[in-house]
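Box 3.1 A note on notation
Throughout this textbook, protein chains are presented in two layers. The first layer is the amino acid sequence; the second is a token string describing backbone geometry. Keep the layers aligned when reading.
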Amino acid sequence: MLPVVDLSNARLEMDPFPFSVLSGALCTKVEQSTLSWFERAAPWHLTEESFYSQHEFDMRHVELPSDVAQLADDTTIAEMHDVISELFGTRLRPSVDVTAHRLTKGQRIRIHDDYLKGGETHRLIVQLNRGWTTGDGGHLMLFGGSEPEDVRVVLAPVSRQALIFEISRRSHHAVSEVVRGERYSIVYSFHAVAK
């Protein structure tokens, strides 16, 4: 049986910081069930911070439909945990945060690095969208520094795509403004065992 989120083909890139991108990582059936629930019934709430405004909720603290629940169950998390530990050559703590994100027209996430001493050390982002096009905006961008002109990688939010990266003072990234539609993602945050 294939995993719900298949990270088995992950290969590490080092520029501008350690990351991996996988196409088609999310099971199609779970993708469709999750999108339908996100669009109709998910408990979104608006969060506004200095560098972003988005709708979100913690997927481990709400009741999820059965197909969607697979995205946050212990088996799925354990499989991700093992792949990410091996990919980055690090030991991860068992606890993982799972947050759903939604960006709507006019929303974006400015350049930031997610680094916080004692905070998350690795992140997995799974994209979910219906027929997203370049003109819809919402591109995930990786930077070589904190300036917009230092963009190195631009990823369209293609549904079922996964991005894994190591969080550090170098992990500058952003999401361009959403022009049309709703841009969904599921964000898994991992913590390395302190050395």
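Helices lie at 28-40, 66-69, 74-88. The longest helix spans residues 74-88.
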